Amino acid sequence: MLRRPILVVCALVVGLALAACCRDLSLSLGRVRDFLSGVLEISLTAEGSLFVSSSFSGDFRGFANIPLFDEGGIAADLSGATWQAAVLEFDVDLDGFAEETRLLLPQGVQASGSRLIFVAWRGDSYTVDKGVCYLGWPESGRVKLAASRCGKSSGVMYCSMPANDETLARCEFCPATGACGACDMTGDFDDCLPAEKISGSLDIDIDIDADIDFDLDHDRDSEAERHAGEP
Fold it and tell me: What are 177-212's pLDDT values in tens digits?
């Protein structure tokens, strides 16, 4: 008699399961090697003619939308730098789709062992890292990367690898408070970032209460009609 409400609840359960499945799609932390390699590649191939003079103030936190970025991790002395900027469509994370990368090229800085370019971009659904902001740069024979939930002050992931050996890539997570800790390079990417709060609905447009109430009333009326003529 109450089969339809049961079907509605079953549909909701299936919908919730599918939503959970979609959220469980994850990126391996090992993929960060590709990100670092992409940063190195863009630093070696970006043409000087792309760059124009910029009034960049030195605020890397704002530039990359990583509020807790530790600018002390940049070893080069940038105090007297003049800046040039460029925007380039480039597959920096090697996912087969070009990202909009924003580049900063400092002039007049102390040698860093390689061409020093800062590369900022945002993750996307193709790489399953939508909502993550990145800042990468090559320096002193290494490639460095900072990543965080865009605009969030919950912590930053820092990664680094030798420019000539991506197998030695390492990452650590530094929370807003407390000590930094090494990340498991065989684990999931999200495990090296602060947990992402899920807000809003699951886009399952079912009004459970109204639908069940309607069906209960409907089934009660049908039952009453069937028994109306009985003695």
Answer: 999 999 999 999 999 998 876 554 433 333 434 343
Euclidean distance between CA atoms 46 and 135, whole angstroms: 16
> Secondary structure of the chain: what % helix, strand, coil (to 5)?
35, 25, 40
> How many residues are given for the chain?
231
Given a contact cutoff of 8 angstroms between Cβ atoms, the answer to whether 222 and 2 are in contact is no
CA atoms within 13 A on the CB side of 7: 6
* Contact yes or no for 169/31 (Cβ under 8 A): no
Instruction: Check: CB of residue 132 under 8 Å from CB of residue 154.
Output: no
Q: Is 51 helix (H, G, I), strand (E, B) or coil?
A: coil
Q: By the 8 A CB rule, do 172 and 180 touch? A: yes
Whole-angstrom distance, CA of residue 166 vs CA of residue 33:
6
CB 84 within 8 A of CB 51: yes
HSE (CB half, 13 Å, CA atoms) of 127? 27
Residue 23 near residue 57, CB atoms below 8 Å? no
Residue type, 64: A
Q: Is 180 left (phi over 0), alpha (psi -120 to 50) or beta?
A: beta
Query: Which residue type sits at 224?
Result: A
Pick the closest to residue 32 from 120, 155, 140, 157 (CA basis).
157
Kindly calculate the radius of gyration of the chain based on its CA atoms and give it in whole angstroms.
Answer: 26
Q: Where are the domains of the chain?
A: 29-192
The pTM for the full model equals: 0.75
User: Number of helices (H) and strands (E), helices first, in the chain?
Assistant: 4, 9
